[in-house]
Amino acid sequence: MKNKKINTALVAGVLLLFVAGAYTLLKPPAQKPAPAPTPPAPAEKAPAAPKPIPGVPPFEASKYPKEPTVRVYIAEKGTIETMKLEKYIEGVIAQEMQPDWPMEALAAQAIASRTLTISAMEAGTIKRLHNADVSTSKEELQAFAPHKVNNSVRQAVARTRGEVLLYAGGLVNAIYSSCNGQISATREESFPKEIPHDTPYFQPVADNCFKYAPKNIQSWTVKIPASQVASAIGYRGNPADIRILEKGPSGRILYIGAGDKKMYGSDFRRAVGYDRLKSTLVTGMNYEGGNFVFTGLGWGNGVGLCQWGAYTFAKEGKQAEDIIRHYYPGAEVKKLWQ
């Protein structure tokens, strides 16, 4: 009987352990503490709004509620013709860029040329010269060829009708060039004296203008007699002493000279000839047997819109407004009239 009680107690104990074990296996596991919330990623700071440029007055868009009629000085004839501003822009685009280029490249050129035109009108530069609003002289403002206007040019001008570039409320000095050597110039490199105020929208921005630009303006070599180089600089010593003294942010000649003579690279290019020294983006300057041999990249002042760069961007599907903002960082497109 005693053994029976022991066995009964043993079985009861085993059953209790079994039940307890089964309960342990069947009950849900203890809940884990909730993970600490992940802090939100810091918001990216919006780029600072451009600040007004000292010396550049706010542009009064209200002066242009509708398309103006302009007096155009026809330089070849010495006469003045009256026409609508957009008609004038068509003639400018047809000469300043090839009329059969991609639509968005032509449209980007239209925005730049329209801005430059209104800048000249606001400044009154052509009015003082010829008692007109604009001129067809490339040296005075922009070239003009109405006989070259085609449907593409008309469409590009209509597509951007009334659009100009503003920076912090002021008109952009929308200078442009043919091929910037794949990097844009700053004001200090190309117009250090001609433009009296800061131009924060002229920055050394890169592009891929060599993709379609002719080989002879992608890179070039020119030989200039050392005596002519010395004369341009005003240096009377040994011409072999002449050096590039400093380069600017884009790699262009900022100063060239020797001894006590120091000259802006842009002035030097003008002195020896724009067609000889195609740009100041000089990659080599070597004295050889009484001559200087210059090697360089691109053609033109390199500032602002690069026409061959715009061609490439347009081929890649970029819109005119995006192209123009690339070349004038911080500027915004504003439509003046419908």
List keywords for this structure.
single chain; 338 residues; alpha+beta; 3-stranded antiparallel β-sheet; 11 helices; globular; disordered N terminus
Task: Report on the architecture of this protein.
The chain has 338 residues and is an alpha+beta fold. Helix content is 34%, strand content 19%. It has helices spanning 2-26, 85-96, 103-123, 125-130, 151-159, 187-190, 215-218, 226-233, 265-272, 307-315, 320-327; strands at residues 69-74, 79-84, 134-135, 163-167, 170-171, 176-177, 219-225, 243-247, 253-258, 261-264, 282-288, 291-297, 305-306, 332-335. The protein has a 3-stranded mixed sheet. Strands 5-4-14 form a 3-stranded antiparallel sheet. β9 (253-258) and β10 form a beta hairpin. α3 (103-123) packs across α11. The radius of gyration is 34 Å and the shape is globular. The chain starts with a helix and ends with a strand.
